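User: Earlier you gave me the apo prediction for this protein. Now I'd like the version with flavin-adenine dinucleotide bound, so I can compare the two side by side. Same sequence as before, with the ligand SMILES added.
Assistant: Got it. Here's the input I'm using:
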Amino acid sequence: MSSLDIERAVDRYGDEQIELIKFYRDVALEVDCDPNYIANNFKNSTLIQDKMMADFKRSKKDSLSTLNRTVVSESLAYGDCGALLATPSPSLSGALLDEIGSDDQRAFFREHVTKTSCRTFFGVTEPDRGSDAANMETKMRGHTLKGEKLLVGNVGTAGIGTVLFRTEDKFLDMRAAIVTPKQLSSERVKRESLQMFALRGSNVGYIHFEDLPIDEDMILGHHLRPMQQGVMSMVQVFNRFRPSVSAMALGTAQAIVDHVESTVDKLDFSDRRQLSLLNEEIALARKLNEKAARQVDKNPFASTMASLAKMKCCAAAKRVSSVINSILEANIILFDPWLSKALRDVYAFEWMEGTSNIHRNNLITGIKRNEFPFLNQ
Ligand SMILES: Cc1cc2nc3c(=O)[nH]c(=O)nc-3n(C[C@H](O)[C@H](O)[C@H](O)COP(=O)(O)OP(=O)(O)OC[C@H]3O[C@@H](n4cnc5c(N)ncnc54)[C@H](O)[C@@H]3O)c2cc1C
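And here is the structure of the complex with flavin-adenine dinucleotide:
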């Protein structure tokens, strides 16, 4: 029996995504055991194909694209976030190509993704530098790429992706390139998926480039001015996606609370009161996150509100996990495989798109820039 209460899901998110929400919940445990489950068994299904085409549409910038992506991400994560992340999609690479790719590069990427229905990767984080993109060690010298990336979603199995690197040692030298299917099967690339405890569908992995030749026409941004080729454009892509990651945390948290409310009989008045407080916290974080998404849609450099929202959404999700663990008897959780998995999954969001400490730093910078004038009143 599905752990999804469909009526509740429709009440919360409408019926537009309901088939996909239901599918994600139905395959959630299979994906948790095998992150390739959707790619191996459903990549040609209409549901997955339609989702991929919708993702291509959503990665295009328009006046509401960040908000739309945020709302959809929450609803799909309500189905199951691991399954969502294990689905073939252009994902962040699609957005990067939309930001700085040429028409030919976009067409090359899109053709490969749609023809093979593959998953894609976006390589930023490194073993020694983490996600501190300004200090990356992956470098391109001449026309060869050397370096390594860690914790990159789907990198062990993706059919194509993009990678960020530096060309010199100056601030504005950050660039990105498409890593083609041919390069991925070359001896100069080593990659593997990592063992995970939470959110296994995200299938994070490691990739190493050993003097990999990069074709000039796969380097993004040649047609743009130097300021638009690298760091400034990457910042916009990160900012546009951050509210979606926060929304995934909320979707997972909301799904847990709804699931407990509708399936656990032995809840007393105090338990129900605690669940209602969790619902309020999620609703407040959602309001803030959607406000942040609207701000990014107006100005893609407006990152302060999105940082605050990311902190609030991750905190709400972690509180849900901790409260549910404290009010339910251990055997209720242990014998409910989807619930015990979801209670683990929420801890991964803190580590996606920057930790709370990093966002706290962004927030302080925003306060110093007087982005919150009411604090001075
Ligand atoms: C499910 C999942 C999917 C992911 N997908 C991708 C992907 O597709 N591509 C990709 O490139 N990466 C991906 N990542 C990696 C992710 O983006 C990083 O792990 C995340 O941004 C945190 O950065 P970090 O690991 O470098 O940690 P760091 O930023 O190095 O932080 C390590 C610790 O130090 C603290 N810290 C760091 N700097 C400071 C400071 N200045 N002041 C105070 N404290 C500090 C942090 O709070 C944290 O506790 C993924 C991670 C997860 C969990």
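For your comparison, keep in mind: The pocket of flavin-adenine dinucleotide is lined by residues 122-125, 130-131, 151-153, 199, 202, 204, 348, 351-355, 357-358, 361 (CB under 6 Å).
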